[in-house]
Design brief:
Elements lengths: L4 E8 L4 E3 L6 E14 L4 E15 H10 L5 E15 L2 E15 L24 H6 L28
């Protein structure tokens, strides 16, 4: 399996579009990735060339993408790079797609609040929404502290021979 896995950091350039055919849910959006460099002559950061990718998300990632992303959001996308080319009327065109494995907000440029989605078995109706689950009974806070060490009962052990 020789696939080109990439990690692209950029901004959402188009509103994510969602579709749910019988083959499974998918979403797509355009990602703008602009290189920045320090221009010594201007003594300032300068934008370089912008690359555009079409990002494809499938199944649960598609639903979460549409619910979470908006135009302009800074994101990190990891996935498989797919380059397509086509010749029409003597002109050659190329497209670069990313089949996303993971998509997230770029936390170096802002904050985000994570909300876990309620998983359901395929073919069953949802029992309650995420908002209803969040508004439900408070779950106890997990115990993060390391428990105090119990007093050690030191017992002499006989050496074990290793052969």
């Amino acid at each position: 399996m020789n696939e080109t896995m990439i990690c692209a950091v950029g901004n959402v350039a188009t509103q994510p579009m969602y579709r749910d055919p019988e083959s499974g849910a998918s979403a797509r959006f355009r990602l703008a990735v602009t290189a920045r460099y320090w221009d010594r002559e201007k003594n300032a950061w300068t934008d370089g060339h912008t690359n555009f990718f079409t990002v494809w998300a499938n199944r649960q990632l598609a639903a979460n993408t549409v619910a979470s992303l908006n135009v302009g959001d800074p994101v990190v996308v990891q996935g498989r790079l797919k380059v397509r080319s086509e010749s029409r009327d003597g002109a050659s065109r190329a497209w670069a797609d990313i089949d996303a494995v993971a998509i997230g907000h770029d936390l170096s440029r802002g904050t985000a609040a994570f909300r876990r989605t309620v998983r359901q078995d395929p073919g069953t109706a949802p029992t309650r929404s995420v908002q209803e689950a969040d508004a439900g009974a408070q779950r106890p806070e997990p115990q993060w502290e390391t428990p105090a060490a119990e007093p050690a009962h030191h017992q002499e052990r006989e050496p074990v021979a290793v052969t």
